[in-house]
Amino acid sequence: MRAPGLALRSLLPFLLGLPALLALQGSLSDFWASVLITAGVNVILAVSLNVVNGFTGQFSIGHAGFMAVGAYTAAKITLAAAGWAPAGLPPRLADGAVFLLALLAGMVTAALAGLLVGMPSLRLRGDYLAIVTLGFNEIIRVIIENTAFLGRATGLSGLPRRTTFAWAWMGVIATVVMARRLLGSTHGRALLAIREDEVAAEAMGVDTTGYKVKAFVVSSAFAGLAGGLLVHLIQLCTPRTFTFVKSIEVVVMVVLGGLGSVTGSAVAAFGLTLALEGLREVQEYRMVAYSLLLIVLMLTRPTGLFGTREAWDWLPRLPWRRRPEEGA
């Protein structure tokens, strides 16, 4: 009897979120739809990176590399399936099915890339791990720039515009649900133990390397999802989109929101995206103002906007919520 209830609880955010997103999508102008889709992609990147940098306490700065793997996989599939539709399916539904398949394939290839990088490198920690992930990011970019099948430096153009507001924010819901469920699980507690004291966690029998690899794989998969959504928004997949600078932008969002806080990562990613759009009118001073904003925030909130807490931690305790010591 418990299994159907858990399944319904897992699907509830999607069942409630999809109609709301579709209703909101119809009322957005093209400009605001594009801005909010970009914000959604950044939220997916920040929350997924927080699984490694926040929950596990590692320091990865190669997130754009996994993003590129997922983006190129999804782009090749949608280009190969252009004009193809299964018999009996309306064109719009067929396009949606192909796009979903492309996104899932991008997540799988990005996860495999995360496994390939994570198995040898996650025995390292701190600055050494950061250097390895940075190296992987550059290796992926150089391989793409020298592979004819991937379009070399010019990339892949002519992609269909498949990413809509609903697609992007359904991806956000999936990423946030993943992060929250992971954090509340046995695996999440093991990740937090590694973050607090890796030596003590290993002494208590936690497979620290194994859990770090699992977190890395999950984080990489959702980076691939963000990459697939982004390139089908801008209709171009080029290695210039996935440089070291993009990885640093995502790290800034995670640190600014608070390492270990899902809410913080989401709010920081959303807020910084809107801030960059708001500063577009003063293009020559845009990055200066952006940098000053980050400096002020980090001086006033060195642990980030939320620290390790979530937004609902500040809500008043509801009368039907039991205290931890009450009940069995």
Number of helices, counting only DSSP H or I runs of 4 residues or more: 12
Helix content: 55-70%
Strand proportion, as a percent range, falls in under 5%
Assign the structural class, choosing from mainly alpha, mainly beta, alpha/beta, alpha+beta, or little secondary structure: mainly alpha
Q: Specify the biggest β-sheet.
A: 2 strands, antiparallel
The total of beta strands comes to 2
Low-pLDDT parts are: 318-328
Q: Whole-number average pLDDT?
A: 86
Distance between the termini: 20 Å
Radius of gyration: 20 Å
Main-sheet strand order equals 1-2
Order of helices and strands: HHHHHEHHHHEHHH
Which geometry do the CA atoms define? globular
Concise structural overview:
By secondary structure, the chain is mainly alpha-helical. Helix content is 69%, strand content 1%.
Overall description:
This protein has 328 residues and is an all-alpha fold. The protein has a domain of 213 residues. It is 69% helix and 1% strand. It contains twelve helices and two strands, in the order H-H-H-H-H-E-H-H-H-H-E-H-H-H. A two-stranded antiparallel ribbon has the order 1-2. Helix 6 packs antiparallel against helix 9. The radius of gyration is 20 Å and the shape is globular.
